[in-house]
Amino acid sequence: MRNELWFLVAWTLRRILRNRSNWLIHFGLPIGGVILATVVYGASSQPDARVGIANGDGQAKIAADTVGFMRKLDHTTVTMVTEAELKDQLAAGKLDSGLVLSKGFSDSVMAGRPDHIALQSVKGATVTAYYKSMLTGYIDNVGAMARIANGDAAKFDRLYEDYAASTFKVTAQSVNDTSGAKQVSTQSIGFLLMFMLTSAGNLTELILRNRENRTYFRIVSSPISARTYVLSNIVVNLIVMAAQIAVALFFMRAIFHLSVGVPFGEMFGLLVLYALIAVSLSLAVVAFSKSSSAASALQNLIFTPTSLLAGCFFPIAIMPDAVRRVADFLPQRWLLDAVDKLQSGSGIGALGLHLAVLTAFAAVFFLIAVYKFGRSDDTRNFV
């Protein structure tokens, strides 16, 4: 049986690899998924906000210092404009937000009743909220000094100079933000899961296509049994998908420099376990199909919607609670959740439940396929 098995495996692999379209399906699509995830989720850099300031309070010290305070804010580009230019540039989309300091602003702050200041934006509070909170803190501090001075200009100037020359410093240290890379790598894995199902479906359909073109009957008329033939298809599936996984992970790490945050061996092992699920599910689909076209239709009905619900195409966090509960019954969701736990620092030993559930999915689908093949009264099926 062993010789017959490996003869069929080698014959099937040669047949698959001779067709250039198969290279695209099995290896091109996963690489395309990585590229797509990089394009869609990789643009994580936040551009500087464009703020226009119309200072109508002239050379007043507090107004000038408020402008200086705005210039020091991170990720903010300040442009000095007139009030009329501010409105025009906001309407044209050249500025994201605008700050108007009207005449009397500095005097109102010194009087302890800040006024004559306004924030403008056509994008609403999503843009102005940050600047409002920062300006509120700064102006409240200056207003508090004005109340302490109680009209004494010399005292206020002394307090204000001490505040401006404060030796209190905040030391900031930048760290690498890995959330963007994590999201890109997770969605790349999600696309890979979908394409693994597609590959398994195409390879398992060979059983039906060989039956339709009579190749299967010539094979089983030889000393090779139907069970050996089906087993060879399973082995071919696993070999191709193991290569597919290795190529996808290589391109993610070496070409696109995406760190999955999981050791290569652990990630490869998890995906091979998922490959077993993909093969078993594809066999179950073939067992219930009378033709390759029927199998293709059933695969499209199962593979794409389940991958969508499981969060393979976009983060599961944006989905409603009802959809998340449905996703708990899908193997793709358990695999992605296992990857997320490994990325968060959990060891492989903490994934006992995930590994058990994924193994159970593979076993159930294999049992369904075996039961359907065995119960079929169509002699063309495999028993």
Describe this entry's structure for a reader:
- With 383 residues, the chain is mostly helical.
- It has 15 helices and 4 strands.
- It has a 4-stranded mixed beta sheet, with helices on both faces.
- α3 links the parallel β1 (49-55) and β2.
- α2 (20-41) packs antiparallel against α8 (179-212) and α14 (331-343) packs antiparallel against α15 (352-375).
- The two termini are 17 Å apart.
- The relative contact order is 0.10.
List the helices and strands and how they pair.
Elements lengths: L1 H16 L2 H22 L7 E7 L5 H11 L4 E5 L2 H9 L5 E5 L3 H6 L6 E4 L4 H25 L3 H12 L14 H34 L2 H6 L5 H30 L8 H24 L4 H19 L10 H7 L3 H13 L8 H24 L8
Parallel strand pairs: 1-2, 1-3
Antiparallel strand pairs: 3-4
Task: Please give a quick description of this structure.
This protein has 383 residues and is mainly alpha-helical. The protein is built from 15 helices and four strands.
E-strand count? 4
Number of helices: 15
The structural class is mainly alpha
Strand content: 5-15%
Helix content: 55-70%
What strand order characterises the main sheet?
A: 2-1-3-4
Oligomer: single chain
Short key terms for the protein model shown above:
elongated, 383 residues, disordered C terminus, mainly alpha, 5% strand
